[in-house]
From TrEMBL:
Pfam families: FabA. Keywords: Lyase. The lineage of its organism: Bacteria, Pseudomonadati, Planctomycetota, Planctomycetia, Pirellulales. InterPro entries: FabA_FabZ, HotDog_dom_sf. This is 3-hydroxyacyl-[acyl-carrier-protein] dehydratase FabZ. It comes from the Bacteria. Its EC number is 4.2.1.59. Transmembrane segments: none annotated. GO terms for molecular function: (3R)-hydroxyacyl-[acyl-carrier-protein] dehydratase activity.
Amino acid sequence: MRWFWVDRFTEYVAGSHAVGHKGVSLSEEHLHDHWESYPVMPNTLIAEGMAQTAGLLVSELYDFKELVVLAKFTRLEFDGLVRPGDTITYRAEVGATKEVGAQATVVGTVGDRQQARAEIFFARMQAGAATAQGLPSRLFDPEDLAHWLQITDVFKVGRHEDGSPMTPGDYGLPSYA
């Protein structure tokens, strides 16, 4: 994944829910390409931030060892605009899980205002099935994944459902200081 639309996590409970944040800055190039004289965060990128927040939760259900891909938005609504200086807060919750994947609900807010709501289904591509179709067995290289989780504070705030802290070693990932 080339672009990350979540800057940090302030809450993460494995298999349950997560809270991620994206600060929107006037220095971001895409704001000037959307509406030239009125910079706003494009809704497509907000949807991507929602998918990244929820997708991380779903991928963790499979210990980050299987390819998990966004299959479809079963619901997606937007209210209002996100402007430079705003912070979008994504609250994602894992819903129904099945052998073929999992569903998640995400609400995006700016302050107290709901900005977006989505229901997203993520397909689970088991390693053997993925490689048989010429796909990688996982989305991220383990070192890249560990680095991203570290810099977004997942291992700082993350907890397992029993309350114990999440660590890179829980998933066979390298640790960064």
